[in-house]
Amino acid sequence: MNTESKSRYKTTNWSEYNQALRQRGAFTIWFDPQMQWSATPTGKKGRQPTYTDIAIQFALTIRNLFQLALRQTQGFIQSLFQMAHLDWNVPDFSTLSRRADKLQPLLHKSAKNPQEDLHILVDSTGIKVTGDGEWVRKKHGVNQHRQWLKLHLATDANSGEIQAVEVTTCQYGDAEMLQPLL
């Protein structure tokens, strides 16, 4: 029998420990007042976009970060702008939904050194999205309704940062998705 016990860490400075725990929940967003939030006219026929792609990406990032619904995202960003004393319009939930489908992730150079070349690794994996569990398939035989999606990723070889993402049906191979990822 092992008589050695794990050494326990004993907190001696509770005020610093409590402050460190509170600091973990700190949240800061810096808004650049010079940022182009409203889109400039494109010169094409039809209704012009109201918001830039950066504005939509910001809203969708906030949505994913806090796991919010689109309407909640709209309200959250509106309250952020009020606290920051910014008189910017907030994209409504239907605009976010519509533009999210058309928005392409931008491939950018490394933030650490913009002059440095970017080396990209491309890979994909399958994701089961519908159908019964493996137990049901084993018990009752092959189920024809199982569906898979392929998640194609382009990552920075140096930092591991994801640069681009595409989701396709299982019929698309890795080679076919290389060009859209770049």
Properties at a glance:
single chain; 182 residues; alpha+beta; three-stranded antiparallel beta sheet; 6 helices; 3 strands
Describe it for me?
With 182 residues, this protein is of the alpha+beta class. It has 2 domains: 14-102, no CATH class; 120-181, no CATH class. The protein has helices at 14-24, 53-66, 70-83, 93-102, 134-140, 178-181, and strands spanning 120-130, 147-156, 162-169. The chain has a 3-stranded antiparallel beta sheet with strand order 1-2-3. The model has no long low-confidence stretch (mean pLDDT 80).
List the domain count as a whole number: 2
| Helix and strand sequence | HHHHEHEEH
Average pLDDT metric: 80
What share of residues are in beta strands?
Answer: 15-25%
Topology, element by element:
Blueprint lengths: L13 H11 L28 H14 L3 H14 L9 H10 L17 E11 L3 H7 L6 E10 L5 E8 L8 H4 L1
Antiparallel strand pairs: 1-2, 2-3
Helix pairs in contact: 2-3, 3-4
Outline:
33% of the residues lie in helices and 16% in strands. With 182 residues, the protein is of the alpha+beta class.
